[in-house]
Every structure is written in structure tokens, then in C-alpha cells.
Amino acid sequence: MTPEDNDSDNDTGLLAPGWAGTPAAAATSDAAYLRALLDAEAALTRAQAALGLVPKEAGAAVTAAADPARFDLRSLAERARDGGNPVIPLVADLTKAAGEVYGPHVHRGATSQDIMDTATMLVAVRTLDLVRADLGRTERALAGLAAAHRDTPMPGRTLTQHAVPTTFGLKAAGWRSLVLDARDRLTRVRDALPAQLGGAGGTLAAFGVYGAEDAGALTAAYAREVGLAAPSLPWHTLRTPVADLAGCLAFTAGALGKLAVDVLTLSRTEIGEVSEGSGGGSSAMPHKANPVAATLLAATARRAPQLAATLYGCLAAEDERPAGAWHAEWEPLRDLLRLVGGAAERAAALAGGLRVHPGAMDANLGRTRGLIVSERLSAELARLLGRARAKELLTELARRAHAEDRPLRELLREQRELAGCDLDEQTDPARYTGFAGSLTDRALERP
User: Fold this and answer.
1) Beta strands in 194-288 (DSSP E)
2) Which residues are catalytic?
3) Which of 73, 308, 325, 342 could form a disulfide with 246 if both were Cys (CB 3.0 to 4.6 A apart)?
């Protein structure tokens, strides 16, 4: 037995743990594309039957013949090399399957790109529906975290260093906001994804020969049958739908990547403010519980922009149908759908199982010996001592806090000029989180 004999699809995702075994993997498999191609062909015959351009029975006959179980994926893939796309051998096989009477009504008036583009949009719609469901699970989990930790203080970090205190609730609310942004973009794009119907050169000329009198009616009927939006024009070389998909998928990968990189940072051993609900193991170090979900999300966020760039490059498609630009879209678009589909499922699990460690957050707030509230002290002491003296004093006390390993609050209490000041209030990081609570509340009002 050869390695190729182990799997008929030969697309198991061995090197793609980010999407292997996920619903998105099934929705974008070769079998799923075959299903979509057959759906596109059958819908075309039904649309023409609905307009009286072919016998009514032809639509039912071709739909019945378009059973994926009757087609050999490997054979289609190998024969696709001759014509450069899988539609050509598929049409031959579907015509034969439909029989002598109804076979001539298969693919009538269409070109290969009509079917391939329509099938690609079907695969995209079906995958995006999975992604949106997982994004919904993710945002609900993050909303719960934001509400539960509305007032849980933690260090805010800028340029990798402690800056001012913030709250974990506000951080989780920010993650949720990005997820909702991704959801909204995916929804707008998904609902606008169109069928493709233009014929050989984008004029629908052959359909006229077969009796069509209204291009708009034909296109609308086809779009209804296949379950996609009706385009205003054939878009063989007007690749807005693919570019829009590229953009929203890359954005979604990046939005989930933000969640991932924050979790990776906060779950470092020396920080320990969060941890994944069930980390992965190490082949060499038994003590480790690696943040695998966040790692795979971060990997997706790094791959997605380059895949999207390829799809944006395909906008420069020459003539009425292109040589190469269209063909270059297929694999990167499928990779993007798979990656984002897998990432969305991982993100939902990550957010739903994320463990928050307020004790570690509180301990980390003290790592700078109180200097994390220096911004507040600068403002408060400036009113009492003047800006110049306040800056001079805080600069000196910050130096001493480090050099003497003493809390800033203790050093402030030794200053005679600060006698009577409420230093407990002014040096407590938990009391300097600004409007984090109300910002979190406002963010959670977004549906």
C-alpha cells in the first residue's frame, strides 16, 4: 500500500492542526467543493426550467443526477489538468449521469467559470455560517468574563512595560468588541456573495440563443435556485466578492489573533494572570501545559494577511475572462476559509475555558513597588507642591524605590511636605483604573 492509498481525499490536515478535524475542514474539503459544483450545475438547469427554457422535468432529472456519490473525486482531479479546472470533466460526467434525454440540458449556455465561481461562493457561505456561529459563542464567553471581572484590577502594559492599572473586564470587553467587528464584517460579506452567470465572455449570449429574453430574470432565477445574491453584472474579471472575502477573513484572523497574543503574554509563567482551561502537553517536559489554542490562533493571524494579499493581487484580471488570475484564487481562498474556520472554533473553546487569576494580577500590580500609579501621583502632587517640585520628588523616590527595594508608599510617608495626604488612596492601584468600569459597561451594551 502506498501513502496515497490511505485516504481517498488525501487532504487530512496532517500539517494543519489549526483546522484539521473541524467543521470548517469538512465544509471546505474536496468533497464539499464537489457538492457545491453539483449544486451550481443543478441550480442552473432548474432556473432555466423555471423560465421555460428547458423542459420542467430536466431540472428534477439533473438535480437527481447531481449526487456526489456517483462521482469519482480522484478522476475529476486528474482530468482537470487537461482543461485547467474541474468543471470540464464534471460536466461530462454529469451529462452522462443525467441520461440521453436530459443530459443535453446540463451546463447549457454556461462557462466553466460560472460554475466554479458559484460553487466557491457556496462553499464560502457555508463556511462563514460556521464561523459566525463560533464567533457568537466566543463573544458570549467574553461578555461573561468582562462582566464578572468588571472591577478586577490588573497592570496595563504599553511597549511591554507596566503603564497604569486597568481592569481585566475592560480587556475582555475589548476582545469582544473585535470579535463583534469581525462578525459584522463577515455577515455583510456573506449576505452579498453572488452567483456567477455570464457565459463564455460575460454577455450571456448563448442563453439568448436558447430562448432567454431577459438577462436579469435569468440571473435572478439562478441566484434564487442556488441560494446566493443576484449580481448586477457578470463578475468574471470584476473580483469584488473575492476581495471582500479576503478582507473580512484576514480581519477576523487578526481579531482572534489579538485575543491569542494577549493570552499568550498573560499566561507566561512569570506573569500567570490567565491560563487556558486545558493546555497542551510537551513531548519533552512533563510539567508544561502549553497554551495550544492561543498558539494556533496566533499562527492563523500571521498566515492570513499573506493569503489575502494573493487574493487582492488577483483583482488585476485581464480581458473578459482571465488567464491565471482566477486560477490563482482557489487555493489561498480555501486556505483562508479553513484557517479562519478552525480559528473561530478554537477561539470559542479558548474564551469559554479561560481561567482568570486575580491573585496574580494583584501581585503583579505591586511589582514596580507602587510606581504603576506614578501618573496619578504626578497630577495629585503637582496641585500640592507645584509641577516642578512634584516631578523632582517622584523622580528621586522612584530611584530610591528601585535602589532600596522599598515600596513607593513607604518612601512618600517619610516626606514631611506630604504630611496629611491620603497616601493610601493615592497609591492604591485598584483605585486608579479610571473609567474602566463604565467603559466596560458601555461596551457590553453592544449586541
Assistant:
1) 274-275
2) 282, 321
3) 308
Distances (CA, A) of 44 to 163, 208, 314, 404: 61, 15, 26, 80
Residues 6 or more apart in contact with residue 310 via CB below 8 angstroms: 328, 329, 332
The x, y and z cell numbers of residue 220, run together, are 435572478
DSSP assignment, residue 230? P
CA distance 430 to 365: 9
Inform me whether the pLDDT recorded for 179 exceeds 60. Answer: yes
pTM of the predicted protein model = 0.93
Contact 24, 337 (CB under 8 A): yes
The phi and psi torsions of 85 (rounded to 5 degrees) equal -160, 160
Query: Alpha-carbon distance 170 to 175, whole Å?
Result: 9
Q: What cell numbers appear for 50 in the block?
A: 423555471
C-alpha pair distances (Å), 225 with each of 64, 118, 228, 352, 364: 15, 12, 8, 38, 59
* Predicted confidence (pLDDT) per residue in 116-136, tens digit: 999 999 999 999 999 999 999
Q: How far apart are CA 190 and CA 133, in angstroms?
A: 13
Categorize the per-residue pLDDT at 13 as very low, low, confident or very high, splitting at 50, 70 and 90.
confident
Residues 59 and 49: their CA atoms lie apart, in Å, by: 6
Cα–Cα distance measured from residue 4 to residue 343, given in angstroms and rounded to the nearest whole number: 28
Pairing mode of beta strands 274-275, 161-167? unpaired
Q: What is the pLDDT of residues 404-444, one digit of tens each?
A: 999 999 999 999 999 888 888 899 999 999 999 999 999 99
How many Cα neighbours within 13 Å face the side chain of 393? 24
Phi, psi for 195 (deg, rounded to 5): -70, 165
- Cα three-residue angle 264-268-274, rounded to 5 degrees: 70
**Do the Cβ atoms of 38 and 225 come closer than 8 Å?**
no
Q: Which three cell numbers stand for residue 278?
A: 486545558
DSSP 315: T
